[in-house]
UniProtKB/TrEMBL annotation, chain A:
Role according to the record: Cytochrome c oxidase is the component of the respiratory chain that catalyzes the reduction of oxygen to water. Subunits 1-3 form the functional core of the enzyme complex. CO I is the catalytic subunit of the enzyme. Electrons originating in cytochrome c are transferred via the copper A center of subunit 2 and heme A of subunit 1 to the bimetallic center formed by heme A3 and copper B.
Name of the protein this chain belongs to: Cytochrome c oxidase polypeptide I
Enzyme class, broadest EC rank: oxidoreductase
Taxonomy of the source species: Bacteria, Bacillati, Cyanobacteriota, Cyanophyceae, Synechococcales
EC number: 1.9.3.1
Subcellular location: Membrane
PANTHER family tied to this protein: CYTOCHROME C OXIDASE SUBUNIT 1 (PTHR10422:SF18)
UniProt keyword list: Electron transport, Heme, Iron, Membrane, Metal-binding, Oxidoreductase, Respiratory chain, Transmembrane, Transmembrane helix, Transport
Superkingdom of the organism of origin: Bacteria
From TrEMBL, chain B:
Name of the molecule in the record: Cytochrome c oxidase subunit 2
Pfam family, one: COX2
Species per Swiss-Prot/TrEMBL record: Prochlorococcus marinus str. MIT 9116
Enzyme Commission designation: 7.1.1.9
Keyword annotations from UniProtKB, A to Z: Copper, Electron transport, Membrane, Metal-binding, Oxidoreductase, Respiratory chain, Translocase, Transmembrane, Transmembrane helix, Transport
Amino acid sequence: MTIVNYDPRLVKSKNPYPKGPNDWKRFFSFNTDAKVIGIQYIVTALFFLLIGGLLAMLIRGELITPPSDLFDPTVYNGLYTMHGTIMLFLFLFPILSGLTNLLVPPMIGAPDMAFPKLNALAFWLVPVFSIILLLSFFVPGGPASSGWWSYPPISIQNPLGKMINGEMLWIIAISLSGISSIIGAVNFVTTIIRMRAPGMGFFKMPIFIWTVLAAQLLQLLGLPALTGGAIMLFFDLTFGTSFFRIEGGGDPVLFQHFFWFYSHPAVYVMVLPVFGIFSELFPVYSRKPLFGYKFVAVASFGITILSLVVWVHHMFYTGTPMWMRNLFMFTTMLIAVPTGVKVFAWIATLWGGNIRLTTPMLFCLGGLFNFIFGGITGVMLATVPVDIHVGNTYFVVAHFHYIIFNTIAFGIFAAIYHWFPKFTGKMFYEGLGKVHFALTFIGATLNWLPLHWAGLLGMPRRVASYDPEFAIWNVLASIGAFILGVASIPFILNMVSSWVRGKSAPPNPWKAIGLEWLLPSPPPHENFEEDIPTVLNEPYCYGLDKPFVEDEQFYIEKSLKKH
Amino acid sequence: MNTKIRRIKKRGFSKTFIIIIAVILNITFSLLMGYWSYSWLPIQASEAAHYVDNLFAFETTIGTFIFLGCTGTMAWILVFNRAPKYDESNGEPLEGNLKLEIIWTIVPLLLVLGISTYSTSVNYKLENLGSKVKYDYGAEAPFIEEKKVFDYGPIDVISRQWNWEFVYPNGIHSSELHLPVDKKSNFRLITEDVIHSFYVPAFRLKQDIIPGSIITYSLTPTKKGVFRLRDAMFSGAYFSENQTNVIVESEEIFYKWIKETVKKELQNGLNPAGSLYQKRLRNGNRGWATVKPAPDPKVNDAGIESRPHDS
């Protein structure tokens, strides 16, 4: 108990919403309660998952046949650009911020985030830039249609020559998203460093907290590059400057450096918390301690540091000199080492456990299965000669969907189910959850596994039409995409009906170890209020007979009383 | 411990025996996958292709071994370590194993070191990329003295939104890229507007073409036939139409083609985007904004749009 970072003065903040904490209207207000903000983020993000998913199905509708017959190719380009943008900036980042908001304060025993008002501001920027982005569908000329990379010169061609155009709104939305994420990151990092419960030294933090810290530090280090690049692109597009325009002596490749310096680490910003989720859930549902806790914790920072020096692997064929390609190939492959440490640790955690195949566990296992696959294709892509062939083909599309959907979104679904009882106070329907998992796993596999072959045969990504030899893989993928669309139905049904009329949840339905499970479901506004627990041991001591906090029984009884 | 495992143990099957069988099966299947992986790729039509395919097969083999090793273990766990209903007791409380953790840090490290050394050696064998020289906007692309000796070239590869044009050293213009087989040809990659990418899947080669820079590139086709050249860097509205054919011929036929084509008058070359854009205008110009496609290139050999391709 040498580390006491906790400042008790932080406990006493006024209830931010005057009409009492349980008024539903609080979800539509500038509420500063991290738990309200977390749910605001998650619900908003899930709404955009539906929009992004709808766009995906339109894309797959076009690609089910070789010719470009459903849309004009300009429309197709706008749709896929917006699909990628919405999924990344309006679904994945916000939903992870939401989970982080919900989980960080209770997991470390803090009453709220360090800067509650900044926290609310970070959230309320989301609807602002979302609306800007969606409005771009209705401006003359249509939305941005140069892909989510928005590489110049294609992104600054501005065919109609109008000042207000889809690309301009896109850049504004992305910059605001960047600002929102930077604000969020400052908040998360400060909260984790300053507001942990007494006794919770770094090596007693849950792995989810480790991964959030690693991911949010990465945001702080990387995001300024992208946001700066986006502002320069805005100037080139709107005011005719020439940062990236060759007419004025600029260089379009410079943008690619700004872009990937952040946007590759961005993948780790998203996947690290999901690694955290895996590390939280595998011990719970196999009833074993996390294997090699310290290795797993430190590996997160290994990933953070390495991910800052790999971005050129997106530019192996832009004319990058040989030495640089070899160097970045090596650094990229090194990431396999800390990642491998995690994967092996999870499997070792499962080994000899008492496995319970609940819905969250199924999503975790499915996510891990897919991640091993996506990680291996990732190493293939890192090797320069293979990347030169399959880079910018459907092999890459298949690979990154294996990571961002089949791993990250699986982890997110696992987390939503696992912590649903905690934060809504209601149990979900296990049967519907399993149907959701089965449809998602089948749909996702059918959607993205066949596309690897389309890419290996040389089908470029982002095409609206293709040669007939690629048809079979695309038909399978489209069927998979439509199954994924259907998979959203049991999920929505489950979430809405469980929240409205589900069975009340006990404080610790999964018999899990963790500070959040010592709280009532749902937790009171300031979590532990006056009685902040003192942490004695690292988490995940399943079967080790080590108490997690001092006077555990007191908290268990207190949580039941509230309930 | 699960009862099934105990039963297996009692029957005399030791854990090591099961592991040895599993590893042998895994190695066999992984080697098979590596062997099959060649069939997932297009025809090998350039000197680079077999190096790339060998590397890919090597990675497929190792990847399959790791994938099956991990997921096979997961499957084993799911079969034998499931908790019976209502059993909420704890599993074996293993907290870690330093030796194991060090092994699974070092082994992958050595593995990626091995793979990247192998790939680096392939890179040095290929060396397709020449120099990249910037030049002023609007100026003629400069001529670059190459240190290396090539059998043929340089051929100017001009990419546009959205057509390809090839200019041969004797001044002929073509919409399709004709190349002599087994000869190292040299290219100057030029774009007149945005970034494009010169990608021939059968060659396993891809190189972006950057505005304001001239990039020299070389490759040796090794198989006669017709192969697709696809723009692989998104270049706007009619990006997917920005394709043409690479026709690899024997040296004799190639030089005959050069001689005959030089006599031909300039005519409109392949420009599928142009005709699609005209169709769009006829239908009331619906759809979202696009820049106008570049005009039809003026070429001596107009090429055949629907020429059947081998890969």
